[in-house]
Write a structure and sequence with these properties.
Strand content: 15-25%
Distance between the termini: 23 Å
Order of helices and strands: EHEEEEEEHEEHHEHHE
Oligomer: single chain
Helix content: 40-55%
Strand order of the largest sheet: 7-6-5-2-10
Number of strands: 11
Structural class: alpha+beta
Low-confidence stretches: none
Number of helices: 6
Amino acid sequence: MWYLIVTARSLVWVLLTLFSALLMLSALLSPSWLISFPETTTFNNETVKFRPSVGVYSKCGRPAGVDHPPCTLLAVRGLGTEAHIYPDAWKAATVFIASGLFIMSVTVCMGLLSCCFQSIFKKSIFNISGAAQAIAGICYIIGVMLHPMAWGSSRVQKLCGRDASPFYPGDCSLGAGLYLAVAGTVLTFACACLSLPAEKSTSSDKVQDKIYEGQTLICLT
């Protein structure tokens, strides 16, 4: 017999899992982990304002023209980009954050499947997802910690001044991208913890009573 089981706790867990993954994706693509002072440049007697910044995988700088976007990819050649352009610590950070995102994407799919299947190979789909989310959170922590390790590189010192050093941003300020990454990491661990009550809610006595009554679509608060 096929059952569709949705509870308030399982729904909250799935939505938070999706939201945390989107937060980390935004953080990975954000050029605003470190932000410098606003600057201006002139093109054909037209003044253009911009604010240099750098993230894990993208950056913002002086635009090439009025109609050109100020933000571009930092790693034009991917992980093969030279270290003075794309520091090795940021390459490693990209790998760890992307690995965490892949794991979270899998758990989002598993969360959607949890409405129909509560176990895989006789193991609770919620417990498996919760363990995977904890691993993803660890990947995020490593990735976030690797980024400030390269703040003493020549690229960051050019942006933030010679005083910039590992874990000290110099003249730059911390941007929204870094805060998004921290928030996404915290939410990921929260999702790992919420997987336990989500699992209990889908196997509660109320759910069993609905199944005994012959219902195939079960929605509980």
